[in-house]
Amino acid sequence: MGKGKYLSDAEKAVIRICKDNGYSNRKTATEIGRSEGVIRNFLKKGEKYGHKTSTRGNAKLTNRQKGQIRFEATKNRLSADQIKNKLDLPVTKQHVAHVLRRSEHIRYKKLKGKPRLTKCHKDNRLKFARKYMQFKEEWKKTIFSDEKKFNLDGPDRYSCYWHDLRHKNTCRSKRNFGGGSVMVWGAFSDKGKLPLCFIGNRMDSMAYNKLLSDNLLPYVEEFFDAGFIFQQDNASIHVSKRSREWFTENSIPLLDWPACSPDCNPMENLWGILASKVYESGRQFQSILELKHCIQESWDEIDTGIPQRLVDSMPNRIFEVISHNGGHTKY
Question: Which of 229, 219, 218 lies closest to 252 in space, CA to CA?
Fold first, then answer.
């Protein structure tokens, strides 16, 4: 029988007859004058023998296509799969991602959530920064505070995107207190951390004042004779009439805090450190009690030098706000 690139129908028929009669691949190859490898390949592929395998996923991309991929990723913030489908590329989404990773200017990074800043917000942030730009040692006498929620199944979801290192970071808007499993209140100063407090999702001014009475006042009495200042955000229970009266009655001076400014509060960074410990290695929790125990344990384990370093960052935060005319900072 004549030899060709692929087996003829007659050769295929002979091979099937030989195999039905128990011939080995070597003996079958001798019968039809083909190599043993050809026989083995035909028997392995069966009906698919002779059909070319599509190379669509491994096709080469032109420089123009690679440029389009980088444009869609950084300008339109599309995922590798979205880029593949939009441009109808003859490659897999993994190939698209590989092109992006090989670019020296593009990195895949978390899309940070930051509050949307209006002109009024920026003006107030700038006013705040200019008011406290002379603060140096005063920051060491400031007590920073904040609330934080922790979920049983891990931190709030976040988005990732392909970031061009030659351009500014991209941010998305977010809302505070979107619900969660556990709410905690924390505070610290250059002197160290205050006791961590677990609070309810619907805390009112009376409960907030009691929390401060039980935790802030003892801390102040222990570490500050005079001259300290307390920082809190503008949550309704913080600035209510009852709370304002409590601060006045207890002679607690307040930092004039601008709205939508978590980047100015180093407490946010301490929360980030705490969350990384709580959710280390993608940890999830089965019960509220288990989550609370882990949060408390992780809070106690935070190195005492971290609060000091965070306080020392305040002059730089103030400078960043001024440099960005009240806009978002790198913090």
Answer: 229
Q: b/e string for 107-119 if b means 16 or more Cβ within 10 A? A: eeeeeeebbebee
d(CA 177, CA 147): 9
Average pLDDT rounded to a whole number, residues 302-307? 94
pLDDT (0 to 100) of residue 58 = 57
CB neighbours of 158 closer than 8 A, spacing ≥ 6? 110, 111, 112, 113
Q: Which two tokens stand for residue 289?
A: 């009690």
Number of domains in the chain: 2
Domain containing residue 301: CATH number: 3.30.420.10
Asked whether 73 and 162 are in contact (CB, 8 A), the reply is: yes
Listed in sequence order, the DSSP H helices in 35-178 are 36-45, 63-74, 80-87, 93-102, 119-131
Counting Cβ atoms within 10 Å, is residue 84 exposed (0-12), middle (13-18) or buried (19+)?
Answer: buried
Instruction: Indicate if the alpha-carbon torsion angle 154, 269, 107, 171 is positive or negative.
Output: positive
Cα separation of 154 and 274, whole Å?
Answer: 13
Quote the domain boundaries for residue 25. 9-48
pTM above 0.85, yes or no: no
Whether 44 and 190 share a structural domain: no
Q: Is residue 264 part of a domain?
A: yes
- DSSP class per residue in 252-271: --B--PPSS-GGG-THHHHH
Alpha carbons 86 and 78: distance in angstroms, whole number: 9
Assigned token pair, 297: 């344990």
Q: What's residue 150's pLDDT? A: 92
Contact 248, 215 (CB under 8 A): no
C-alpha to C-alpha distance for 238 and 232, rounded to whole angstroms: 7
Total Cβ atoms within 10 A of residue 216: 20
Q: Which helix (H) or strand (E) holds 174?
A: none
Question: 123-177: per-residue pLDDT in tens?
Answer: 999 999 999 999 999 999 999 999 999 998 877 654 455 566 677 666 544 434 3
Sheet of 159-164: strand order equals 159-164, 106-113, 171-172
CA gap 56, 5 in Å, rounded: 23
